[in-house]
Amino acid sequence: MSEIKPPNRNGGRKPNYHSVPVKTSQSGAKKSPAKIGRVKKNKIPTPVIVTNVLMVCVILAVCGVIFAITFNNIKYDKDSSSQQRPAVTSSSSSSAVSSQSTMSAQSAVSSAQSSTATELASTADVSSTGQENPEPAVNADFNKEFFKDDLFIGDSIFTGLYLYQYLDRENVAAAVGYTAYSAQVNPFDDTFYSGTAVDYAKDKQPKHIIIMLGSNSLSPQTDMDDFVNGNRGLINSLKTACPNSTILVLSVPPITADSSLASYSMVTNTIIDNANTRLKALCSELGVKYYDINSELKDEDGYFSEKYAEADGMHFLGTTYTVLLSSVEKVLEQ
Q: What is d(CA 215, CA 252) in angstroms, rounded to the nearest whole number?
């Protein structure tokens, strides 16, 4: 009798005992072979990326600032050591170049004046050359008490009035680099008074206001109309702020033939004389007093007399202030 075989459930094929059944997910779908065994990467949070980018930008900016400061210092040291006069701007140069040249020259003058003004306090009786100051002129006498209710507005030259102790500090509103315009908008001494010279005059209401400004405003590129308008603005502001004060405007003082300080801005006595002519006409127009101190300080050759001039050829020797105050007192008494 033949052996009975069980039915072949493989459709007549032999079963493959080595085949591995494919696992399925709970939903019954097959997993992709490519995803089997892959490690999931963690993404960097956006805030971390933004923070890192900002840090890099800040570092680059700081490096740029440090480089710029270092480069400027190197350039300044190089220019200072060369001690060369700035080139004269040609008449065909653009107004922007002329303005930049004027500002650079005036900045150099202000810097040099700052150094000179600092020395004034320690050189009350001796000039910067180490020589004794000359004897004052015969008429160089004044009464300090006469100026006790007055106010002097000026630049670094006028700071010598209190540094040499000819006047009290409260009688002087002066600053290094001061001009007719800056006297209206910039404080003259934050450690003494926080406001401008005009503000101080308004608070003080002086009997007389004596103005001497212009040394920081003049150069070959100076527009004389702007120079006059700056002084007009200052005088009108003071007339409004102090209606009962007598205003006296002094001419711009001269320079010596070899003034080292004037060479920075290339100002000449011809330019100064032209400015004074315009200044005198302005005072006549506005009805204020004017005095030509410039002519009184010149020698026979038309330059700032060496018996009155500091070594830089622009600032006053200590005894020159007595000449100035004596003349001012006589003018105000008239």
A: 6
